[in-house]
Amino acid sequence: MSTIICLKGSIEALPIVERVRALGHRVVLVDVDAACVCRPLADAYLQADHYNADETLTTLREFFYDDIPPSAVLCCGGDTPH
Predict the structure, then answer these.
(1) Is 39 a residue whose pLDDT tops 60?
(2) What's the first-to-final CA gap in the chain, in angstroms?
(3) How far, in Å, CA of 43 to CA of 15, rounded?
(4) Residue 56 near residue 49 (C-beta atoms within 8 A)
(5) Averaged confidence pLDDT in the chain
(6) What are 72's strand-pairing partners?
(7) DSSP 8-state class, residue 70
């Protein structure tokens, strides 16, 4: 099973996260809002501000420390190219 990091969990991200799950991928959701709409769909939720690259990378490195690295990263309804 591949792991996809989904940046943002708001209502705009919902169809993207639903599709990632439907395709059978493990969803690691990153959003600053612990009550975000997509959180129930995630296999893992990481609270970090996806607009802050340093914060997000630090949180992800801690999470994946002893785990299989992610297969991909998706910006899900957010303008987070960095």
Answers:
(1) yes
(2) 26
(3) 16
(4) yes
(5) 89
(6) 4
(7) P
